[in-house]
Amino acid sequence: MDDASETGAAKHTIPVIERMMDVLGQIERRPNGATIRELTAQLSLPRTTVYRILNTLHEHDMVRRDDAGAYHLGRRLLALAAHVVAGVSDIDLASLAQPFLDKLSADLGEGTKLSVIDHEGILVIAVSQGRREYALTVAPGQRMPIHAGAASKLLLAHLSADELAIWLAKPLIAYTAKSITDPRKLAAELGRIKRAGWAQDRGENAPSIHAFAAPVFDRSGRMVAAVSVPFLAGAKPARMEEIRIAAIDTARAISEAMPI
After folding, report:
1. What is the DSSP-derived secondary structure letter of residue 34?
2. Distances (CA, A) of 237 to 35, 108, 109
3. Under a CB-based contact definition with an 8 Å cutoff, are residues 115 and 97 in contact?
4. Domains plus CATH for the chain?
5. Which residue(s) pair with 10 in the sheet?
6. Average pLDDT, stretch 90-102?
């Protein structure tokens, strides 16, 4: 776009929305959240302006405030993101999968997640909380490591060779001793996962957290999402098998519910 076009476009923008987007952009870049003081200093805006913007965003669930007073991106943004994902395939995956996740969590007592992969990596688009003692809390809108975790590996395993090569060329961070950081070893693991039809996490992202994941396919046979169940390490083999089978069955049920 040339300078004249940019100047013309600028005349048709709304300053308060521009400031709101600047606030959201700053929060997005801070994984631990941002306080009003930090936002005021970073954006060179009056404190009252930042406060009013945050108040408005909070009312619409676009941001949330933690106990320390820092602001984080809110759950309403997840709903918007889910519609973007839906727009690509004409399917609202989050809404379609929610009742299945709720049943899975009710049956197992564990938290459950539905994740997709986009150009930025792994995104959790739907969750259901577990009621079992020590059930792990799951949160929508989370960005997960691209290579560490059951759902992440499963989604990578179903990419085309060209798409996978792009991700494997990026640095693979070791989050724990179980993380696979060698591209060749990860590629071999992904091959095994694709053949098996499910994936397992034995503490790759956090030492105490294990998980199973199973693929959701659309009617054309393309994998579009992963159902996963995280749980605390130390579960007995029979319990682990129960979780694995339940995840596979739920993913298959969601796949069968996909519109033609």
Report:
1. B
2. 45, 15, 17
3. no
4. 3-74 (1.10.10.10), 78-257 (3.30.450.40)
5. none
6. 87
What is the chain's mean pLDDT, rounded?
89
Q: Global pTM?
A: 0.71
Q: In the sheet where 199-202 sits, what is the strand order?
A: 143-144, 121-128, 112-118, 223-232, 209-217, 199-202
Q: Smallest Cα–Cα separation from 95: which of 108, 79, 110?
A: 79
| Residue 43: φ, ψ to 5° | -95, -5
Q: How confident is the model at residue 82 (pLDDT cuts 50, 70, 90)?
A: low
Among 128-142, 173-187, 218-232, the range scoring the smallest mean pLDDT is 128-142
Distance CA 159, CA 166 (A): 10
Helices (H), the chain: 3-10, 15-28, 36-43, 47-59, 76-89, 93-108, 150-157, 161-168, 183-196, 237-257
pLDDT at 14 over 90: no
For residues 78 and 61, the answer to whether their CB atoms sit within 8 Å is no
Gap between the Cα atoms of 133 and 110, Å rounded: 9
